[in-house]
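Reviewer 2 asked us to include a model.

Predict the structure of this chain.
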Amino acid sequence: MAQTQLMRPVALRPGDRVRLIAPASPFDPALFRAGQRAIERLGLIPVVSREEFSRDGFCAGSDEARAARLAKALGGEETRAVWCIRGGYGTGRLLHLLDLPGLRRHPKLLIGFSDVTALLLELARPGGFVTIHGPVVTQLPRLALSDLRWLRAMLFGMQWLRSVPLGRARVLVPGQAEGRLVAGNLAILASLAGTPFAPDLRGAILCLEDVGEEAYRLDRLFWQLASAGLLAQCRGVVLGELVGCKPPGPARQALEAAIAALGLPALAGAPFGHGRRNVALPVGVRARLDAGARSLTLLEPAVRVEKP
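Predicted model (structure tokens):
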């Protein structure tokens, strides 16, 4: 697929209002309050409605209610960004309830990861806009300071961030590749295979992470993506953290072996995912991976800066 440049959301400015939403599971109120304060320290004004604190089984309200809140947040003009409070489970259940083509036409900063993967990738399809695979609100209190600075610089368009901080990432397969940056949770990506919302990974540099999975499940999830043909035209892979996956050694080794078998340029152990490190990655921007040099370079900005 030819590279299609996506629209870029407007960069944030100090004093901007940011809508906090719970599109999936309920959240811990104490962690939420701490995350809310972290957003205030960034110079932003967090806005949250009472409905976000709803509970309906394992979700933060019914599918219809969460979809309506999400659509209103993304379409509303009173806030400049939408920041997901938590992942968990349930975002994928909303996709068929949303006017996705309509939402794609109105770029707005959307920040989240894990279960939010499905929404991030849907809005970053052709005709859509760049989304941010980054820490949810309840992760902010324990986020590494360096990653918080990187996130702030990205959201505010303070500088054109180019070299993604990859920490101690290791080389799985040397080589170079250029393509669209696509980041997400392995289990969520696999759950979308065979649905109308299956991810388009053609021409992608795919960044993967997961949490709490057994070694055999990681292998099965990756095999599902591969056997569905979704990885056939990927150009490179970057594996992030596998927090709580067990046994730790075999879990990591199983997934790394499956990735290496693709023969694409690949890195492992990059600092993004469910741990203390979660480097924000702009979904949909062009990027260059040089696995041998352990570098991932953004070739275009994630946001556009408007004059005051």
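The mean pLDDT is 96. Residues 29-41 form the longest helix (13 residues). We have added this to the supplementary material.
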